[in-house]
Design goal:
It is elongated and about 75 Å long. By secondary structure, the protein is mainly α. The two termini are 16 Å apart. 81% of the residues lie in helices and 0% in strands. Helix 4 packs antiparallel against helix 5.
Length: 172
């Protein structure tokens, strides 16, 4: 086998590997989105429990969530809990926009921002009711993400490998 053939085979292997990895990446991002949405749902439950039983300030809520190991994947909480002069709602939205949890779409990030916008703006019962409404909207996003994950994750992995194989065959 001459040097040109070795380079050609090596290039084809790289093409197949790269497209397979790309398919796996998109599949992984679907699973990350689903996991992040479920954690946001748990976070809303946690916030509701805090409001109902402890009546903390919004900064205490953010600080408590940031310290929780369960929500360590939400780096934006650290930015919110240490905010200074900025109003809480602006701080929350800024932190979310700067550090969007992995896999979330812009619509998901907007939903997460809405949670922070509504915290601390009314009495406890109204906040809880508002969070329950947010949770309803979130549950529909979770359902859509589960459907996407079921239908598209395997497809992305397969299409990545098949696209690499197709390109390789075309180059031969």
């Amino acid at each position: 086998m001459n040097m040109f053939s070795v380079l050609k085979v090596s290039g084809l292997i790289v093409i197949v590997a790269a497209s397979t990895l790309a398919g796996n990446y998109f599949s992984y991002m679907l699973r990350c989105r689903l996991a992040s949405l479920k954690k946001i749902n748990y976070m809303i439950d946690e916030i509701i429990m805090m409001i109902r039983f402890r009546s903390p300030t919004v900064y205490e809520i953010a600080e408590s969530l940031a310290k929780s190991e369960r929500f360590s994947c939400f780096g934006f909480l650290n930015s919110v809990s240490t905010a200074g002069d900025e109003p809480f709602q602006q701080s929350w939205c800024r932190a979310v926009s700067e550090d969007v949890p992995q896999g979330l779409t812009s619509g998901d990030a907007e939903l997460l921002s809405d949670i922070g916008r509504k915290l601390g703006t009314s009495d406890s019962e109204s906040q809880i009711n508002t969070l329950r409404l947010q949770q309803t909207e979130l549950l529909s996003a979770i359902s859509a993400a589960e459907t996407d994950c079921t239908k598209k994750a395997k497809l992305y992995r397969s299409m990545g490998a098949l696209a690499g194989a197709f390109i390789s065959i075309m180059l031969i």
